[in-house]
Amino acid sequence: MRQSGAAGGSTAVGTRAHGAAASRVPTGGAVRELLARAERLLESARAVPADRGNAVDAVRSVLDPVLDSLVNRELAAIPVSRLKDVTEGRLRLGALEQAGFGTVGQVHGTGRYELRQIPGVGAHTADQALAAAGQIAHAVRDTVSVRIDVDAPDDTSTALVVALHRLVEAGADVRRAVDAARRLSERLDPLVAAAGPAGSRLRMLFTGREARARAREAVDGVRAAVAEAVERELPVLFAQVSADLLRAPASSAEAWVDFELRSAEYYSLLAELSGSGPDRDAAEGFLPAGIADRVRALRLDDTCLRVSLRGYQAFGARFALAQKRVVIGDEMGLGKTVQAIAALAHLAAHGESHFLVVCPASVLINWTREIRARSTLRAVPVHGAERTGAFADWRENGGVAVTTFDALHLLPGAADSVRPGMLVVDEAHFVKNPAARRSRAVAGWAERVERVLFLTGTPMENRVEEFRSLVRQLRPELAPSVSGTHGAAGSRAFRRAVAPAYLRRNQADVLAELPALVQVDEWEELGAEDREAYREAVASGRFQRMRRAAYAVPEASAKLGRLRELVDEASESGLKVVVFSYFREVLATVGEALGPDAFGPLSGSVAPARRQELVDAFSAVDGHAVLLSQIQAGGTGLNMQAASVVILCEPQIKPTLEHQAVARAHRMGQVRPVQVHRLLATDSVDQRLVELLARKDRLFDAYARRSDLAETTPDAVDVSDAELARAIVEEEQRRLADDAGRP
């Protein structure tokens, strides 16, 4: 008897009857141990989809009655005459109408036997009517969407949020684990069955030569499949996901808090499970069928992602990968950044190691944070004094290099560098002028890179010449076919003409998949002038001066620059904007930067009647407008639901003050999702304030925010202003002193 080291040692038995072929077949205890290990792995793999199925069933048990109620409400408003349209006029409705059936809902809610009792309604008519009503009900169910009102929770919405919480908390790993479990089971199940005889010496003695060969091959296959699963850490993934899905339900308070923090993920999951969502053509940017089919055929690998994508976002990432050199021009707030990261993550999962992102300086920190938060990819900021060393590190070790338009031309040329798996250019309209230095630098990289993704929120159909300039860098052969007449013919005509290289979706197109509130933290890095003003404020120990130091030098203010970009992007999409600040001085600075067309500012010195007049005038504007407001004056009492973009110039000491201000726009009557952008400066009072407030007990904060007392008297539940200010000033003075002492 001989032993080999493979798979912990396998025993081969040789007999005179079966000769040398049998002696090479691994059998015995080692094989039984391998097969037992494979069975345990299969058992855990089978458990994952079963556990997810149970969690989904728990959601459906609450969701289905809600959807049925919404469908019945819609059907009750549809006249019974619509049944004729479905049957192309073949259905006779006279008897039904005479019996008092006036709506499709009444027919749909009546049984076949009851309909047949109506004089003049035979079996054929009853069946036709019910089938037609069922078709309409099915179509209605595809269009209704469930909205969860966080300000008026009832038993049903609470049960739904609690059920959804289990799946949301388990995260993107659930989908990854289910897919991996399915593929592993499909591969391993037949191998284990075929390898069964090799686990017994006796069975192998009485097995024919071909069967022994198949068993030996199957054992090798099992060993390889198990080893690969262990290498990919699938046993740990399956165990963790099952544990997450089997946890006891969260308390209602915990689930509601999480819903407020991550409503996008809840609504994305809700749309998936309910089958509701935007029209597919709209979600796919009205692309021609041939291109859309090609994009759909590409399977997106999310192994390196840490976030679940909405349907239109996954399509956008696949579009970038399938078409290779494209512009994604989605309206602001639809997640262009995460679509780009998903495309990078897919390529990383398939072996690419280097990627390059070029963006304005104002969003470089956001890109770095998003890459790290949304994926497992390594983000390497390449800017400032350390850019040369950071760039060398990226070339050596890979990852996503994130640099600015101004820094790109200072880096080693594209010809001397590693070729990235993809080049991403954010705010791509910045390179519309081919003669500009930044455009030439981008073009130099784009010429050598196979995959290039331009991102811009500017609707290109309004700027055909700009689009033609961008297309020349991506698809020169397409540029001559783009003319001004396409833009003049309307957005859909333009998109179809440039479909191979352009994808744009508007909020209205994908509204069903969007949460009611999108919150984005816009992290900026203080410039030299900002930083000097901030140091002086810290040295003087003046907390409020520290909070507004980022606007002390308007022409060099990173926050003000980002604010103007957000307003410009909202202007391109025709969206109204409200800008809130605690400080009149900051609002005055913002007003000077935006010009005389901005309404306001609303402040404590403005009489209440005049405040309402300003809000009414702002709301009456057709299209884009900007309203400036001191957060204490505009944050309560006024309704600003005409606005769909809210910009907070700085974080507030009282979280309830921010909540109330956002609620002025995000309230009943708002027909578009509300985007909230908080302007924050790294290594400053903003970061300390956010960190300190985050340490508060989230559940206590949630209870307080939902109480009537908190809504009317925020001071009753917020931390002491003086205590918080003192702690932050002292911490910042120590930090800056330490920084000054370092070489």
UniProtKB/TrEMBL annotation:
Keywords: Hydrolase
Protein name: Helicase SNF2
Transmembrane segments: none
Species lineage: Bacteria, Bacillati, Actinomycetota, Actinomycetes, Kitasatosporales
Superkingdom of the source species: Bacteria
GO molecular-function terms, A-Z: ATP binding; hydrolase activity
CDD domains assigned to the protein according to its UniProt record, in alphabetical order: DEXHc_Snf, SF2_C_SNF
Pfam families reported for this sequence: Helicase_C, SNF2-rel_dom
InterPro entries to which the protein is assigned, alphabetical: Helicase_ATP-bd, Helicase_C-like, P-loop_NTPase, SNF2-like_sf, SNF2/RAD54-like_C, SNF2_N
Domain Helicase C-terminal: 562-715
